[in-house]
Amino acid sequence: LLAGTLFETRRTAVKAMTCAGFFKTAERARVSIRNTKAGNFLPPGTNALIAFDFVNHGRSAAFLEGARFTPYVAKFLPEVPPLSDRAGAFQWVLSAGETKGYLEPLGLTEEQFKAWQVEKANIFVLGCVIYRDVFGQKHQEDFAVMFMPRGGENGMDTFRPVMMREYWRSRSGSEVEAL
């Protein structure tokens, strides 16, 4: 009788832990970017403003801790895109369903400009946003955006952004990189 009761208690505990895990997954924050725009990266050394909207698609608040943005010029992205050590640290709360705009100044080096101009390489901005959910779990969303020149006037729409979905990835817990 005692063994049966212990077995039932253990099974009930396992079910409760499983339900709690599903609840955390369903209710947690999920942050991504959208509405990306870039100013003019030219001439080299000029800081273009990159505009991103951070969006919380989840069902609870996200506590944004920072982001990393890396300009990268090449014909193709490597399998594992490199992220710079340069990080923007900030403390924001992003409510469920909320969108918040962010501007980051990024520029091309002489070498990157030459690769773009001579080798017809592409301009990418690689990045990640790091945040915590209401359960205290740390998350990181990696992304890559390719900017194609439109020509014409200077301004926020000089380069057309193309989201590189195959480079987007989500990480949690110990997989999250330090800022």
Estimate percent helicity: 10-25%
Q: Main beta sheet, described?
A: 6 strands, antiparallel
Low-confidence stretches: 152-157
Q: How many helical stretches?
A: 2
Strand content: over 45%
Summarize the helix and strand pattern as letters.
HEEEEEHEEEE
Total number of beta strands = 9
Tell the overall outline.
elongated
Give the radius of gyration. 21 Å
Q: End-to-end span in angstroms? A: 55 Å
Determine the mean pLDDT. 77
- SS-based structural class? alpha+beta
Question: What do these coordinates show?
Answer:
- By secondary structure, the chain is α+β, with helices and mostly antiparallel strands.
- The chain has two helices and nine strands; from the N terminus they run αβββββαββββ.
- Strands 3, 4, 6, 7, 8 and 9 form a six-stranded antiparallel sheet that branches. The chain has a three-stranded antiparallel sheet with strand order 1-2-5, with no helix packed on it.
- A hairpin with a 4-residue loop joins strand 6 and strand 7.
- The chain starts with a helix and ends in a 7-residue tail after the last strand.
Any descriptors?
179 residues, six-stranded antiparallel sheet, three-stranded antiparallel sheet, 2 helices, 20% helix
